[in-house]
Every structure is written in C-alpha cells, then in structure tokens.
C-alpha cells in the first residue's frame, strides 16, 4: 500500500496552478489575468478600517447569510440589467472557483455529468473530479465559437446535469451571443443548470450583452461573477452568482457553515463602496486589449477576438520555447489553449511595451 491512502483517482496528480514567481525575478507578470492597477491609499485606508471594525467582533461567528453583502452585490449587478436583481438571487463564496465547486456539489455528483466546450477553463474538470461528477468536453469551432446545432445534439446525447461555459471564454476571450445561451438553457431544460461564468464580464466590448439579462427567461440559468479580475481584488477571494432563488437555496445545503469570514464580508463591502475607483481602469484595459490584438495581428499572428482582459495568440510553433524566451526576458505569460497558442493578460502600457519588445526579440531569435 502506498501512503497517504488518497482516493485512487487522485494518486500521483500534481496540484494545479499557474507558476507563481517573485516579482523581483520576473517584473512583468501577465499570466493570470489580474488587473495591474492596485487600490489608491484612500481606498486601502477604508478597507483597512472596515477590516478593523470586523476585528472587534471576531469572537462571534459572522452573518451566515451575509445579507448586507448580498444586498450590495445585487445592487451592483442591477446596473447591468433592465430590471432588478434582488438579494435572494445572489450567492457568494471565497472566489467564483468556490461558487463553481458548490454548484457541482449541489447539482453534480456521482451518476451525474458536467459538460463544457473546449478550449475552456482548466479548473472545471478538476471540480468535476473532486465532486465525483462525470466530465464531458465538447468542442468549440476553429474560431472558438459554438456551433449551436452541434451543441444541442451533444446536450441531447449527454443529458448533462451541469453545463459550464465561461463567457467571455477563458482562454480564448470569446463571448457567447445571447442566442447561444438561450439555446443551451432550452436544450438542458429543468433537468440541469447552465452556468455562464462571467469572470471577465466587465471587459466585454460595447454592444455585447451580459447573460444576466436572460435570467428572467430561464430559471435554470446561473451567471457567475468575481471581484478577482475587473474589480482588481483577486486577493480578496470573493466570487458570486445570480440565479433563481431556488438555486441559491440548493447551494445553502452544501456550503460550509460560515464560509464567508467576517473579514471577507467587511472587506468586500468596502471594496464595493469603491467600485467606481476599482473599476476605473477597465476602459483603459479594454482599449489596451484592442491595441494588443491589433499589434499581434500586425506581427502576422492569429488572435482570437477578445471580450476579456487577455488575448490568445498563435500559432508560434514551439510555444514552450516562446514562453521560456519571454520568461528569460522578464515577461511571464501563460502556456494554455490549443497547441501552438499562448495567452497574455493585459497589463499597463509599460508592461505591454515590455511584452511586445520581448516577443519581437524571441520571434527573431527563433526565425
Ligand atoms: C479567473 C477566473 C475565475 C475567477 O476565479 P476566482 O476564484 O473568483 O478568483 C473564474 N472563472 C474563470 C473562467 C476565470 O478565468
């Protein structure tokens, strides 16, 4: 017998995660789609004061139903829809990754199936495995869009209990049109839930609607968001969803007691009060993204249209060599997506200039 006595399907598996390298070693970090702009001193002081206030009652368990935070998140989301999102439709956890795991614990499980369309977010199959949910990945088309007839046919065949789809998609940046979400929700019906992961929703190009608008039409639709990307608060660990209140009630059954600490709740509420500032650089990042897409295309590379704060480009031949060449020049990007493609997060203008210079040098060296 080998030790430790872990579940056999987990034996020998390396824990997942993008490389985390110290900034003094790699000054330009464009690998995990973080917002490059940190909070102002004023915002830092307000967050610190709120965390300090929460510290006064740390002897007590926090509000298990985090009513104040759900109310603040509901009003934040309501800005994106014609109607209103109410607090009963909102759920939150420690990052949208925890929200995703809770969804699979509640709606997946042994004998049940989760479906996505590759290339897709690399964490989903891990949560399927951890919740003992069968995992099926269909394919996106060559331009990373979804062929709706094929998607419908796959759903009829697989009969998924959970469909997981990032929009904008990670790692491609592709947003799903509302028609696609409607087709998926109708094909799945009340047999399952369709989770549209809008981690990058705030970066979508103008005219691209949010799936939040479709919530009144589909009670099996779940839209997840996070404070990790546009909101510039990846360190906070706060992800959330909007859905039918019955879906939130189902998740309550599987959540850990008091899963959102008093400090997390206070910090998230303070960050939401500073939403205009924290989201203040989103327009600049969108413009920088469009510039980066155009620049990469000028280099003769293929670039997927992006509604996110990153772009996927290819094909670069030996992508590991390109990734390594960039790293040797102090620029960390991500080896992900189809073979021969790489993903770069959008940073400050200075960081993007460093990326472009390094990429030109690496490509010249390899030619
Ligand atoms: C970054 C990302 C998230 C966010 O995860 P958090 O746990 O909220 O930090 C969720 N989904 C996708 C597709 C992502 O790329």
UniProtKB/TrEMBL annotation:
This protein's name: Histidinol-phosphate aminotransferase
Family, similarity comment: Belongs to the class-II pyridoxal-phosphate-dependent aminotransferase family. Histidinol-phosphate aminotransferase subfamily.
HAMAP family, sorted: HisC_aminotrans_2
Origin superkingdom: Bacteria
Enzyme class: transferase
Pfam families for the chain: Aminotran_1_2
Necessary cofactors: pyridoxal 5'-phosphate
GO biological process, one term: L-histidine biosynthetic process
SUPFAM superfamilies for this protein: PLP-dependent transferases (SSF53383)
């Amino acid at each position: 017998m080998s030790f430790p006595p872990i579940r056999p399907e987990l034996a020998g598996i390396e824990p997942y995660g993008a490389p985390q390298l110290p900034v003094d070693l790699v000054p330009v970090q464009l690998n995990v789609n973080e917002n490059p702009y940190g909070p102002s001193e004023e915002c830092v002081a307000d967050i610190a004061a709120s965390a300090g206030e929460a510290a006064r009652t740390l002897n007590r368990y926090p509000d298990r139903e985090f009513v104040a935070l759900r109310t603040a998140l509901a009003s934040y989301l309501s800005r994106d829809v014609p109607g209103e999102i109410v607090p009963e439709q909102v759920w939150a956890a420690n990052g949208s990754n925890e929200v995703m795991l809770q969804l699979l614990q509640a709606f997946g499980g042994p004998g049940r199936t989760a479906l996505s369309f590759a290339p897709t977010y690399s964490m989903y199959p891990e949560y399927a495995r951890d919740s003992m949910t069968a995992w099926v990945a269909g394919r996106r088309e060559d331009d990373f869009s979804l062929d709706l007839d094929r998607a419908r046919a796959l759903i009829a065949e697989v009969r998924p209990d959970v469909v997981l789809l990032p929009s904008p998609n990670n790692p491609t940046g592709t947003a799903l049109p509302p028609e696609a979400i409607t087709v998926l929700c109708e094909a799945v019906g009340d047999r399952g839930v369709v989770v549209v992961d809008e981690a990058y929703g705030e970066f979508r190009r103008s005219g691209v609607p949010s799936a939040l608008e479709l919530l009144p039409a589909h009670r099996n639709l779940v839209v997840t968001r996070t404070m990790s990307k546009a909101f510039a608060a990846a360190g906070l660990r706060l992800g959330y969803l909007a859905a039918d209140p019955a879906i939130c009630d189902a998740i309550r059954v599987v959540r850990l007691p008091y899963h959102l600490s008093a400090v997390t709740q206070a910090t998230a509420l303070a960050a939401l009060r500073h939403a205009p500032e924290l989201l203040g650089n989103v327009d600049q990042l969108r413009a920088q993204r469009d510039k980066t897409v155009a620049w990469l295309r000028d280099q003769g590379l293929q670039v997927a249209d992006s509604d996110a704060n990153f772009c996927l480009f290819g094909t670069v031949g030996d992508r590991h060599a390109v990734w390594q060449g960039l790293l040797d020049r102090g620029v960390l990007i991500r080896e992900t997506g189809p073979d021969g493609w790489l993903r770069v997060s959008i940073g400050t203008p200075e960081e993007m200039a460093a990326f472009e210079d390094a990429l030109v040098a690496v490509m010249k060296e390899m030619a």
